[in-house]
Structure formats: C-alpha cells, structure tokens
C-alpha cells in the first residue's frame, strides 16, 4: 500500500509541472500590465519601471518561469502583486472555506444521490423511478448561478407564504453559521446528487441481475439485506469514481457559487486575482487545486481496494 501511494505521488510531479507551465503561459497572454494595476493608470513611468524591476517582469518569460519553479521547489509560492503578502498566506486564509463548502456539498450529494439511486433501481420502470430520473435530469440541467439566485429569492429575502418557517432564517451571503451554509451547499451539491443518483441506479440495475444476488434471495434473506448488504456494496465501486471526480470539480469550480453568496473562499480569490493579473496568486491556487485533485483520485483508488479486495494495487 505504501509503495503504491508513493508511486502515485511521484506520478503527480509531471502533472503539476504541466499545469504550472500551462497556467504561466496563459496568464502572460492576457492583455494588461500588472505593474499598471498596482501603481495605477496615472502613475509615472519611472514608478512602473521600478515595479517591473522589483517583480522581475523585465526578465524573459523562460527566466521568469525558471525562477518561479525554483521558488516552488523551496516551498515558496511567491508574493502577491496586489497585497504584498505571501501567496501561501493568501491561499491558507481562503482554502479552508472552499474545502468545507466542497466537503459539505459532496456529503449532501452522496446522501441524496445514493438514496435516490437505490430507490429508483428498486422500483425499476415504475412511476417512482421515472419521477426520480426526471428530477435528476433537471438537477443536472440547472445552472449553479440561477439555482443559487432562486434559492436566495425563495428562502432568504423573498416572501414565500407556502413555507412553514420564516425565510429570514436563511442567510443569503457569507460563510460560517449553519444558516449561511445551507443554501450554497444545496446550490453546489444539486448537480452532483443528480449525477450520483443516475450512476447509482445504473450500477444497481447491473448488480441486481447477478447470480449471487439471486442466490441471496433464494436463501431467504430480506430484500433490505439483499439490496444494502450485497448489491450496494458491489454497485458502489463505479459510484466512487463519480464522487471523487465530483469533489475535485467542486473544489475548483465553486467560483460562481462563491460569487453569488459572497463567500470569501478560494474561488472568489481566484476570480479577483485573474482580474487584477496577480500571477503568483493565480498560479498558486491552480497548483493547490491540482494537487488536491490528484490526492482525491489517490483516495478513490484506495477505496476501490477497500470495497473490492480482488483489485490489485497497481501503479
């Protein structure tokens, strides 16, 4: 197990190198001068030239990239052009918020998606099955920003007489309290729940036709034990892949949700840094998200082995 984990971690190095090179190249293609953004449009040329020299922007791009990678090897992600703070501190102050949002949204997706998928598979081709799949299709189709705005209107600021509680109980912005977490978690986790439900249903239908499931029923086991103890354990393997990929995308794709709910997370920091051409912060965020994504996939591989003992831990 340890050797497998070490091999997979070593395989991430070329991936992170490619990501850093791609992001570095794309950022320098964006029009605009970060020195002008720092000093202001009316700043004298001498001041702008000094900023160029101080930030190393006068060096050729290969030299800039080499210096950046050398600093990363030493554990230094650079300094923010806009705030002057170390990039590690900028990311460390925002990453926990985005990570919590992604974890809670994933838990919501797993809970809702697994239950819906198992029920749909159990009542195959019935009205319940069709209804759940139609709702899942809507969940996949709804844009996050629209769903977030509608939830704010219905549950936070609007007058909704058919609700049994006051809409002012939910908070439309910020992060920290339970009232602030509910709406963004639902917004970000709805599409994931729909995807997990569809995958769970498909996987369960394949497993329920296997011979060992029929044998378990022939032995007199209750339908609940057959479904949850035998069928779901085998059907969960492909669902784990969807959950892992979904968590990675939630971590890097929470920009819109954080903007809608005014959450000061990593996604909002990334958006502001791109606007301000704050190269070190953007590169640092992308590297952190990429590394986290790789770690999530490593955990998925380990869970494969846990749920399927016949699978070998190949690199």
Automatic annotation (TrEMBL):
Key words of the record: Cell membrane, Membrane, Transmembrane, Transmembrane helix, Transport
One Pfam family per UniProt: BPD_transp_1
Main localization, broad class: membrane
Domain ABC transmembrane type-1 per the UniProt entry, residue ranges: 95-304
Keyword Transport applies: yes
Gene3D superfamilies: MetI-like
Record-linked InterPro entries: BPD_transp_1_N, MetI-like, MetI-like_sf
Places the protein is found: Cell membrane
Transmembrane regions listed in the UniProt entry: 12-30, 103-123, 135-157, 177-197, 235-261, 281-304
Membrane topology summary: Multi-pass membrane protein
Family: Belongs to the binding-protein-dependent transport system permease family.
Name of the molecule in the record: ABC transporter permease
Provenance organism: Aliibacillus thermotolerans
């Amino acid at each position: 197990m340890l050797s497998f984990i070490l091999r997979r971690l070593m395989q991430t190095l070329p991936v992170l190198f490619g990501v850093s090179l791609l992001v570095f190249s794309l950022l320098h293609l964006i029009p605009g001068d970060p020195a002008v953004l720092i000093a202001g449009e009316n700043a004298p040329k001498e001041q702008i030239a000094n900023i160029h020299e101080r930030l190393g922007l006068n060096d050729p791009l290969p030299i800039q990239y080499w210096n950046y990678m050398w600093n990363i090897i030493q554990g230094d992600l650079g300094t923010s052009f806009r705030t002057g703070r170390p990039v590690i501190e900028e990311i460390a102050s925002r990453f926990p918020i985005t990570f919590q949002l992604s974890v809670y949204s994933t838990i919501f997706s797993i809970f809702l998606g697994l239950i819906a998928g198992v029920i749909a598979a159990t009542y195959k081709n019935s009205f319940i099955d069709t209804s759940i799949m139609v709702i899942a299709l809507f969940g996949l189709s709804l844009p996050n920003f629209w769903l977030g705005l509608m939830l704010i209107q219905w549950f936070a600021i609007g007058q909704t007489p058919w609700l049994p509680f006051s809409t002012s109980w939910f908070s439309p912005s910020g992060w920290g309290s339970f009232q602030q977490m509910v709406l963004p978690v639902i917004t970000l986790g709805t599409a994931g729940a729909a995807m997990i439900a569809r995958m769970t249903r498909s996987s369960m239908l394949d497993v329920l036709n296997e011979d060992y499931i029929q044998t378990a029923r022939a032995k007199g086991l209750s339908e609940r034990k057959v479904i949850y103890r035998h069928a779901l354990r085998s059907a969960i393997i492909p669902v784990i892949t969807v959950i892992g990929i979904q968590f990675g995308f939630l971590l890097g794709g929470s920009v819109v949700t954080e903007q809608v709910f005014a959450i000061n997370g990593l996604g909002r920091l990334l958006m502001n840094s791109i606007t301000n051409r704050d190269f070190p912060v953007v590169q640092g965020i992308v590297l952190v998200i990429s590394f986290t994504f790789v770690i999530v996939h490593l955990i998925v591989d380990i869970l494969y082995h846990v749920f399927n003992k016949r699978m070998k831990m190949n690199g």
